[in-house]
Amino acid sequence: MTAMMAWPRKDGRKGIRNVVLVAYLVECAHHVCKQIARPFPDGDVQVVGFSGCFPSDYGQDMMAALCTHPNVGAVQLVSLGCENFKKGQLAEAIRASGRPVNVITIQDVGGTGAAIKAGRDWVQQTQSEIMALPKVEMEVSELVIGTICGGSDATSGITGNPAAGVAFDMLVQEGATCIFEETGELIGCEHVMADRAANADLRPAIIASVDKAAKYYAAMGYGSFSNGNATGGLSTIEEKSLGAYAKSGQSKIAGILRPAQTAPSGGLYLLDVVPDGPPKYGYPNINDTAEIIELISCGAHAVIFVTGRGSVVGSAISPVLKVCANPETYTRMSGDMDVNAGRVLEGGATLQDVGTEIVERLVSLGQGQKTASEDLGHAEFVLTYKSAAPKEPGCHPN
Amino acid sequence: MTEHSKNDHRILVLADGDNVAVIKATILAGECIRLRGHDVVVPQTLGLGHKLAVENIPAGRDIVKYGFPIGFAATDIPLGTHVHVHNLSSRYTQVEVME
């Protein structure tokens, strides 16, 4: 196997991408960021940010984790000037991580036009500098991979998700870090899942995390179950959950992560995306992109996205590898898909074959290959208000 | 995955002990299909991913798929019946059907 080549970072992690982020610190700076990024190719310079003007510990934690993600090479921060975001604190965290960072405050530099010009100049200069930096070899054991399913139908749980589970087992075997989520879509599997806890302390924590999600969603009035799920043949959250749960494979669960936390070592982790305490700020994650961004905030270099109905999203920062579970959807939307898991239903492949293909495609992303969503220019991003996770979750065995 | 030879080739029983099967390819309304050795007429067209009862399931009993309960029968469900939101209830969150 050809080696992966990646950009080394000061904290020891390595990036399979070297993105310049242009980040707005309030919605008022979003337009300026879009304009700064506009002349540059889609994948090289990406716009992310936090829209809210009110203070948010979660927003600060997430932006710090994302701006110091291994796939990020430099960050242009754009502030309006009167928002509550602690931009100095964020800029310092980015600088301390060894990355070039520049702060533009629109009100100080003279408005929209001046801010766009200053931003483009800095991004152009910095991008050519960081792309000239040497790459180093990267092992599979250094990869962090997330998995999510979205636009699910009943094929997701039969082909795509079990194939992603096979891929996860292969990666964990190699020493990589694999992260699955989200507890609201694991309702009904908590006891089966708890049996896979790597240690006794983790067992009740897994059950508690799913109970918390069930209560949270009940308070919201709707579960994580969409109309498309039912059209596709899924009838209950338990049924959807068991299908979703198959993505985690068979490995022992080494710990529970919270958004913006990185795993202490390789192994399989559950990402608990539901905040502690009484429901606040609405749904834990408003859409698939919010989940993808939280996986990336935990350091995911790439995300396996299993879809049955046919999602098209990619993501800012890390590539999204689209695994299509439904052969009919694949035929209709093949341009958006990377892996055709639906051929398992037609007898053309086994789950093992598809799982192996997923691992090969993930490794190829570190060898210069791109995903379909990257080629199509997808770089979705969303970040909303949420209660911040406690700093010490206490669910890591090591 | 367990495949019963007494079943139509378009359906898939995912685990031993399951009382529903998953449809792999469209079955048209009025078609007579083989289920657990019985001939059953399917009254409505059912697409990929939908479920059929492969035994008579009394109201209140668990519906079992992947070897685990996915809810319970809200009504008596005869062999060959489409099992979905109209006759299968969650033990957790109720599903809102919006269309």
TrEMBL record, chain A:
Keyword field: Hydrolase, Lyase
Query: Where does the D-galactarate/Altronate dehydratase second domain start and stop, copy by copy?
Result: 7-128
Disulfide bond: present as a keyword of the record? Answer: no
GO molecular function of the protein, one example?
A: hydrolase activity
Coiled-coil region(s): none
D-galactarate/Altronate dehydratase C-terminal domain: residues covered: 140-386
- Membrane: is it a keyword of this entry? no
PANTHER family from the UniProt entry: ALTRONATE DEHYDRATASE (PTHR30536:SF5), ALTRONATE/GALACTARATE DEHYDRATASE (PTHR30536)
Q: Which family does it belong to?
A: Belongs to the UxaA family.
The name of this protein is Altronate hydrolase
Q: Which organism is this entry from?
A: Shimia sagamensis
UniProtKB/TrEMBL annotation, chain B:
The protein's UniProt keywords, in alphabetical order, are: Lyase
Q: Which domain of life is it from?
A: Bacteria
Where is the organism placed in the taxonomic lineage, from the top? Bacteria, Pseudomonadati, Pseudomonadota, Alphaproteobacteria, Rhodobacterales
What is the recorded name of this protein?
SAF domain-containing protein
Q: Oxidoreductase: is it a keyword of this entry?
A: no
Q: Return the SMART domains for the record.
A: SAF
The segment(s) forming the SAF domain are: 18-89
What are the TM regions of this chain, as residue ranges? Answer: none
Organism of origin: Shimia sagamensis
Q: Which residues form a coiled coil?
A: none
Q: Which CDD domains match?
A: SAF_AH_GD
Hydrolase keyword on record: no
Q: What Gene3D superfamilies does its record include?
A: 2.30.130.110
